[in-house]
Design a protein that fits this description.
single chain; alpha/beta; Elongation Factor Tu (Ef-tu), domain 3; Rossmann fold; 2 domains; 7-stranded antiparallel beta sheet; 5-stranded parallel beta sheet; 8 helices; 16 strands; 20% helix; globular; disordered N terminus; binds flavin-adenine dinucleotide; Riboflavin_synthase-like_b-brl; oxidoreductase activity; signal
């Protein structure tokens, strides 16, 4: 369980919960001057240019460097190396939280130089969460200060195949890896993405050919009996009924295919009683091209409980979050030839 310290008026509290099972930091004030480009040392002002609703609790925040500064080499580098994050500051409480940028848009909407450098974050509003609630309440054109990049995990250069088990916003690092791996020829990636509600992945039809119900996952009889939850306010779907994240996953598949890389995605939705099963992982572990040289890894990312269920707890040692022992479902499986990493 991630421990973090944050300040409320008159009190220092130790908090023990954070999505991704990860750290939430009270920021170190550091030098007060701000640099115009994103950098790990000082907070850089960005403008919230767009907030696109994904579901009742999550949205994509598009942030543009207020001074129009281009990406630094460090950011360009981070995109090539693996999973990276930025830290956003909550100015009143003096706390910071980490968020994982989504890959740059591949579609025609990234039609200007300015948009190419935008940072996009998929942020879930945690109930009672300090920073995520603060961010979700901000109107467009607000200033948000962030620093980074921070490399969270480096993808080995020789990675041949990745199985990524993602829960909720844990899809963001999966998309980063898909972006990086998809630029290398002949690589393979399988994403198993679990969500509590269908509204997070509207229109997602798995590549495994699994049975999907209607585009929003509810059969007409369930809707008739009144089991349908209210639709996400203003969640945009395209003409094929796909929500924004599903659409971007489809775009990543096409991007990978251009480099002869293969990306397959399976969707799992709790409210449809569809959960990731060990067999779903095992099927991909017994991949046909195990003969190919290179590293193979299983990555797990999502809320703390999700990571623990699949791979055991991450452990804090000396103020740093470490992998801890392999536990959970994956520890009971034959995964010879695969290394496992908790994000
Ligand atoms: C590397 C990394 C990358 C991440 N990327 C993303 C991302 O892309 N998208 C994303 O949405 N998140 C991401 N996260 C999670 C994110 O950093 C935050 O942890 C998350 O937004 C919640 O922060 P918060 O300040 O809103 O919630 P917090 O205030 O930290 O609260 C978290 C939870 O604890 C509960 N809580 C609050 N106070 C108490 C208390 N006193 N006692 C008990 N429980 C309490 C809250 O109700 C809430 O449910 C990432 C985390 C890491 C480490």
């Amino acid at each position: 369980m991630a421990a973090s310290i944050f300040r409320r008026p008159g009190a220092l509290l130790v908090l023990a919960s954070s999505a991704f099972g990860g750290a939430a930091y009270r920021y170190n004030a550091g030098p007060s001057s701000s640099s115009s480009s994103l950098n790990p040392h000082t907070f850089t002002p960005y403008t919230l240019v767009d907030k696109e609703t994904v579901s009742r609790t999550s949205a994509i925040f598009t942030l543009r460097n207020r001074d129009g500064a281009a990406d630094t080499e460090a950011v360009k580098d981070a995109w090539k190396h693996g999973v990276w994050s930025v830290q956003i500051k909550q100015p009143q409480l003096q706390i910071g939280r980490d968020y994982t940028p989504l890959p740059p848009r591949t579609d025609s909407e990234a039609d200007s130089e300015e948009k190419m450098h935008d940072l996009r974050l998929l942020i879930r509003q945690e109930e009672g969460g300090e920073v995520s609630t603060y961010l979700h309440r901000l109107p467009e054109q607000s200033t948000i200060e962030l620093r980074g990049p921070k490399l969270e995990w480096e993808l080995p250069e020789d990675t041949q195949e990745v199985i990524f088990i993602a829960g909720g916003t844990g899809i963001a690092p999966a998309m980063q890896i898909a972006h990086t791996l998809g630029a290398k020829p002949g690589r393979r990636m399988h994403i198993l993405w679990a969500n509590r509600r269908r509204e997070e992945c509207l229109g997602g039809v798995g590549d495994g050919g699994e049975l999907q119900e209607t585009h929003d996952g509810l059969s007409s009889w369930k809707r008739f009996l009144g089991f349908a939850p209210p639709p996400a306010p203003a969640a945009k779907v395209d003409s094929q009924g796909q929500g924004v994240i599903v659409r971007e996953l489809e775009a990543l598949k096409k991007q990978g295919a251009r480099h002869s890389s293969a990306l397959a995605i399976q969707y799992y939705v709790d409210e449809e009683n569809k959960f990731i099963k060990p067999q779903d992982v095992a099927r991909n572990v017994r991949s046909k091209d195990m003969a190919q040289p290179g590293s193979r890894m299983i990555l797990v990312s999502g809320p703390e409980g999700f990571i623990e269920h699949w791979a055991g707890k991450k452990v804090w040692i000396g103020g740093r979050e470490t992998q801890g022992q392999l536990g959970g479902v994956l520890s009971t499986m034959d995964l010879k030839g695969w290394s496992i990493h908790k994000l």
